[in-house]
Design a protein that fits this description.
234 residues, alpha+beta, 4 strands
């Protein structure tokens, strides 16, 4: 039913976590971003930003032609609305889930991503840049910790907001963070990590890329970090 264009990254894990939680039938189409497969013309028609994940729903709810969706937050919303799961039914619960989903999309993901880049991938170690993003990641962890001091999950019940945020906390050590400094965040993190669907989702990652977690090659860095408008074909 769902074709998932995927590579094992935090944004990719969000979608496999959801699909495993719901038992949705899906097929993984690997997009090796280190080899530049995200720039293939066929994929560009599905994901105009040249980024995975993306999905094609071959059996949309309206019974019409297949629907493609790109951007991980939009995909989570689409799947939650279609399945009727992991998006609270109450007005206030839904508002909380969407607030924290967009918080992750606009804050935790981009800031942690820059943290990874300047700490691990940049050819020149720039102390100002590293310090800037390590501190901002720390601040965002503090925001999560404060929210979770009074809530079991970001929207009280487990939702797409939690699925969006969790994969970006998994590499906390690479981000220069200690979970012990954030006890409520740590409790939330360990709870989600132990969910059977989370375990299955991360096992899928190893099946798709047995080298997941290995150092990135110089060739892959050139593909990922040297992009300009020229890669977008009309």
């Amino acid at each position: 039913m769902i074709d998932l264009y995927y590579w094992p990254t935090p944004n990719g894990h969000k979608i496999t976590m959801f699909l495993e939680e719901t038992g949705t039938e899906y097929r993984i189409v690997p997009i090796n971003i280190g080899k530049g497969e995200q720039f293939q013309p066929d994929f560009l028609g599905i994901a105009p930003n040249n980024r995975m994940p993306a999905i094609v729903d071959t059996k949309p709810a309206d019974g019409g032609a297949p629907i493609s969706v790109f951007e991980s937050g939009a995909i989570l919303l689409y799947l939650a609305e279609k399945s009727g799961r992991f998006l609270p039914k109450s007005l206030r619960g839904r508002v909380a889930a969407t607030e924290w989903l967009f918080w992750q999309m606009g804050g935790l993901g981009p800031m942690a991503g820059q943290n990874h880049h300047f700490s691990a991938y940049a050819p020149e170690k720039i102390p100002y840049a590293i310090d800037r993003y390590v501190k901002e990641t720390n601040r965002l962890y503090g925001v999560l910790n404060k929210r979770l001091a009074e809530h079991d999950f970001l929207a009280d019940e487990y939702s797409i907001a939690d699925m969006a945020a969790y994969p970006w906390v998994v590499p906390y050590e690479r981000q220069g963070q200690k979970l012990e400094d954030f006890p409520h965040l740590k409790r939330w993190f360990e709870t989600i990590k132990a969910r059977p669907a989370t375990v299955r989702a991360y096992e899928k990652a190893k099946e798709v890329n047995p080298q997941v977690g290995a150092p990135m090659s110089e060739e892959a860095k050139k593909v990922l970090f040297g992009q300009t408008a020229a890669v977008v074909k009309a």
